[in-house]
Amino acid sequence: MTTLQTAQPAAADRGDEDRLAQAERQGLRLAIICRTVAVGAAFLWVAISWFLLGFYPNPWIFVALGAFTAIGIAHASVIGTRFDRWWMKYAIYLVDAVGICMTFALFPISRSGDVPQILAFRAYGIYYLFPLVAMATLSLSPRLVLWTGAAVVVGWWTAFLLVISTMERTLSWADLSPGASGADYEAVFLSPDFIGRGNRVEETGFLFIATVILALGVLRARRVFRAQVKAQAERERVAATLGRYVPEAIAKRLIDDPTALAPQERHAAILVMDIAGFTAYSASRSPTEVIEHLNAFLAGCADVIARHDGVVIQFTGDGLMASFGTPIESATPEAEAFAASRDLLSEAERSSFSIRVGLAAGKVASGSIGSSNRQAFTVYGDTVNRAARLEAHGKTLGKPVLMDDGVAAKAGETLERFEGQELKGLADKVDVFALG
């Protein structure tokens, strides 16, 4: 059994989380930008209302808007730096929620001071807080979305209760009798003492429902993001697994279909090549010269295999094993393996090497096996063993290329036949065919 091995990073999941954290930081920056734009728009609206519409706001509103803007810019400047802390995003959204809610409770509607503060809730409303929850979704953090929604609900009710606690008399929908007339409704609803407690329940209830839905949407987006990252990591793993041992076209097909590396059984052809007399060759040369010459030769052999749509499974010291038909299916794996063996003979002649090649065709089991930290793409089975035995038997017969009848039948030319050959490790005698 031979393998093409690749290291699979033990920290793959951590890498995925790092990418997600980076996406969160980018989303948070975008939220801060949106927040700054929103505050700027509010500042502009108040200013326009003051100068053009005759509305005279409390001057402290400008101070509050300026403070919100400064906080946002300060936070944006530290996102992703060593000064960044996990709690900062929660703090800034809490400040925003509390600040907006307290504006309704503490900033008088009119400078005269005789307008009931409860009218701020009736005239404007909680919809001013919806953009805050919406902006939290840009962070891709469902926790931050839920935190913001909860902060808004608690802050809104706190401000509301704070306002009504200062009122001497309050009216609400409960003060209307079942048979109340239109005049009764007008008297209650238009009264400055009307607080609309039921309206607060409805608006905060709907806001929190919307918050939960948005949080679920963000959670769904995170899962999709993780799935995409995982798919990309798998594509990169496939590319790393096969690396430079396959042609670009085959590598692309494997990346597009990572399931090709899943354990499976296919009809394929196996090619085993070894250099004849390599021990004697290396004994008379320096290790550096041997390695350089061998590397150049094996690189050329890998190119030969690639040209015939084969996959180098393993370099075996002074040889290699290649498969045709797995992990990529082929209609003619035997013909491809046979053509590759011819070209390997030519490559060996150019490099002043003599080689032996064994070819076998049949069912081949293949797939990625191993631990979570290291995996290997493996081919194994009787076909693999037979190809290795044929390569070794070439020394006995003095033939550079031997093949079984499966490959010979698809070779497309007349071959020399040797009947009843005993191959080491095989119980039955087989007929083998020789090229050259």
In terms of DSSP E residues, the strand content is: 15-25%
Radius of gyration: 38 Å
Rounded mean pLDDT is 82
Structural shape: rod-shaped
**Main pleated-sheet profile:** 9 strands, mixed
Structural class: alpha+beta
Q: Can you write the helix and strand succession as a string?
A: EHHHHHHHHHEHHEEHEEHEHEE
What is the number of domains? 2
Describe this structure in words.
This protein has helices at 12-52, 60-78, 88-106, 119-123, 130-136, 142-164, 182-189, 197-242, 248-256, 278-283, 287-307, 333-350, 382-397, 405-408, and strands spanning 2-7, 264-276, 311-315, 319-324, 354-370, 374-380, 401-403, 416-421, 430-435. Strands 1, 2, 3, 4, 5, 6, 7, 8 and 9 form a 9-stranded mixed sheet that branches. Helix 2 packs antiparallel against helix 3 (88-106), helix 5 packs antiparallel against helix 6 and helix 11 (287-307) packs antiparallel against helix 12. The two termini are 28 Å apart. By secondary structure, the chain is an alpha+beta fold. It has 14 helices and 9 strands. Mean pLDDT is 82; it is low at 1-11. It has 2 domains: 10-235; 247-435, 2-Layer Sandwich (Alpha-Beta Plaits).
